[in-house]
TrEMBL record:
This is RST domain-containing protein. PROSITE patterns: RST (PS51879). Keywords: Nucleus. The keyword Mitochondrion does not apply. It comes from Trifolium subterraneum. InterPro entries: RST (IPR022003), TAF4 (IPR045144). Pfam families: RST. PANTHER family: TRANSCRIPTION INITIATION FACTOR TFIID SUBUNIT 4. One of its GO terms (biological process) is transcription initiation at RNA polymerase II promoter. Residues 153-224, 283-354, 364-435 form the RST domain. GO terms for molecular function: DNA binding; RNA polymerase II general transcription initiation factor activity.
Length: 564
């Protein structure tokens, strides 16, 4: 074959390929699902809906070949109407997926329609029931739905439970209308009234304006809760989230029940018991809860003794579960008074607060110093008169035997001594306890190797400078303290008196006739703090002089020995 002819034929083939029109490849009508096309045709041509439906059913049963459906449709509708329906279908296929009504399940979209169209609610419900029973095909369902709704096909904001709207609605209407709405809502919750009828009946009772205003207020309130304003400059570094702390419902009851009638309080408590059955765990930022027995030491000194005993008896019944919590709170409020209870709560809250900026470097614990009764008792016995001492000693013995409760012992002490006198003695005892702590920053370095005085050396010097009565009393206290040290339990307390602290640093051992940590307070109570300091200073000087003489005598002997 001639090469020139072959090249010419190849060029002709290339030309024919380039000249082939591109539109002939996609010139056919795009393939579409016929069920979607039929829904558009039936909606646009309701007069020919029966013929189209018969044709579509035959197509689904494969009684008609698919290549003849287009011809039959053109015969029924005409070529122009068929092409326009195809163009509409093509436009709908090009829209985003979310714009199609078929992407939303009907059971989710119907509550919105019921809320927006209460007049057509019955027709919508009947249509939806038929759709669920498959009595209506989906292609006809959409057209019937659009015929019922008309052109108003806007999906509004999601529904909110009606009971959340009532706090915004009830203050704006009369009490009888509020009761009617509440009774209607109770029937709705029990299933006696259908959902689509409830809104229409509530609208007739209240009115459309008040109902829409309450709904708007509720939506605004929810938006404010979700979008809390946050200022970055004022936010503390320890704040984790912007949400407010969640308070459990039972912590709110003591503030709620005094403000409402007792029958409503009982109803709320019964409802809360049912709620607790279904509640497994609740993790939340809770406020600190104080038990009632911790409140009593602050409350009982402010009320009479009879009232304190009555409250204590009620509390014992409450601990044995013979009385509900809210009954105990009501009775305690009636006995003590609301003002005193609130003042006690404020006092307890203040005691919990810790001011970090005012904390000193040497302060280890920011809480207030606590004294046991035996620590305070040693100071009191050494100061008060003999008659009150005997009475106080008898009460303290009953307290140690468990015959008097702790919260009733303080009012008894106040009745014997007086409130002001007891507070002053307590302040003195606390100050003495604070003096036992040596701040490390304030302790001089030169006092670490300071001379020490054993108690056995100090006591003969003290007794020689005292009256016979005080000397006998002090010697009796010291004998009890020595008996405690001889019966120690593995501790070896240093029985010394240092110059830097002017106290007796004794480790806490087991309890005896006189506790070790109260021995210094007992001595100060017998002698007086000023006398004790003077005697310690004299004894110090005497010991230092004896040491100088002893070391001077030793040094002179060593010099003489070296000379010989």
């Amino acid at each position: 074959m001639d090469p020139s002819k072959v090249q010419q034929e190849m060029s002709n083939l290339q030309v024919t390929v380039n000249e082939q029109p591109q539109i002939e490849i996609n010139s056919s009508i795009p393939v579409m699902p016929y069920d979607r096309l039929f829904s558009i045709l039936i909606h646009d041509h309701p007069d020919k809906a029966y013929e189209l439906k018969v044709l579509f059913n035959k197509c689904k049963r494969d009684e008609i070949p698919k290549n003849t459906i287009d011809l039959l449709l053109k015969d029924i509708l005409g070529e122009e109407l068929f092409l326009s329906a195809s163009k509409k279908m093509q436009q709908k296929r090009s829209l985003p997926v979310t714009s199609s009504l078929h992407t939303v399940p009907y059971d989710r979209i119907f509550p919105i329609f019921f809320h927006d169209y209460p007049d057509q609610a019955n027709e919508l419900q009947v249509l939806f029931d038929k759709c669920k029973r498959d009595e209506i095909s989906r292609n006809t369902f959409v057209s019937l739905l659009l015929d019922i709704l008309g052109d108003h096909r806007q999906i509004r904001r999601p529904l909110v439970p009606y009971d959340q709207m009532f706090p915004f609605l009830f203050p704006e209407i009369q009490q009888d209308k509020a009761n009617k709405v509440q009774a209607l809502f109770d029937k709705y919750k029990k299933g006696e009234i259908h959902r689509n009828n409830f809104y229409a009946r509530m609208k007739k009772i209240v009115g459309e304006e008040l109902l829409s205003s309450a709904s708007k207020k509720m939506c605004d309130h929810q938006l404010q809760k979700r979008n809390l304003p946050v200022t970055v400059n004022e936010q503390s570094r320890t704040q984790i989230s912007f949400s407010l702390p969640v308070v459990p419902y039972d912590h709110m009851f003591p503030f709620l029940f005094p403000e409402i009638p007792k029958d409503k309080a009982n109803e709320i408590l019964a409802l809360f018991d049912k709620y607790k059955v279904n509640e497994h765990t609740q993790i939340s930022f809770r406020l600190p809860v104080v038990s009632y027995d911790k409140m009593f030491p602050f409350l009982f000194p402010e009320i009479n003794k009879d009232k304190a005993n009555e409250i204590q008896a009620l509390f014992d019944k409450y601990k044995r579960s013979e009385m509900p919590k809210y009954d105990f709170l009501f009775l305690m409020k009636d006995i003590a008074g609301e003002e005193k209870l609130r003042s006690v709560e404020i006092t307890m809250e203040r005691n919990r607060l810790v001011l970090v900026n005012e904390q000193t470097r040497t302060q280890i614990n920011s809480r207030e110093e606590k004294l046991t009764f035996d620590q305070l008792f040693g100071v009191l016995i050494s100061i008060i008169r003999r008659e009150k001492r005997i009475e106080l000693q008898a009460s303290f013995d009953k307290y140690k035997r468990g015959e008097i409760a702790k919260h009733t012992f303080v009012p008894i002490m106040k009745g014997i001594l007086g409130d002001q006198y007891l507070r002053s003695i307590t302040a003195i005892a606390k100050q003495q306890k604070k003096n036992l702590l040596v701040p490390v920053n304030e302790q001089p370095r030169t006092q670490i190797i300071s001379s020490e005085l054993p108690f056995e050396q100090l006591f003969p010097f003290l007794i020689s400078h005292l009256d016979p009565d005080k000397a006998i009393e002090l010697e009796a206290f010291f004998d009890k303290y020595k008996a405690l040290q001889r019966g120690g339990d593995g501790f070896s307390p240093p029985r010394t008196l240092t110059q830097s602290t002017q106290v007796f640093p004794v480790k806490a051992g087991r309890r005896g006739e006189i506790p070790q940590h109260t021995f210094e307070a007992d001595m100060k109570g017998i002698l007086g703090e000023q006398v004790l300091r003077l005697v310690i200073a004299k004894m110090k000087r005497q010991v230092e002089n004896n040491q100088r003489r002893f070391f001077g005598h030793i040094s002179s002997k060593s010099l003489n020995a070296a000379a010989t």
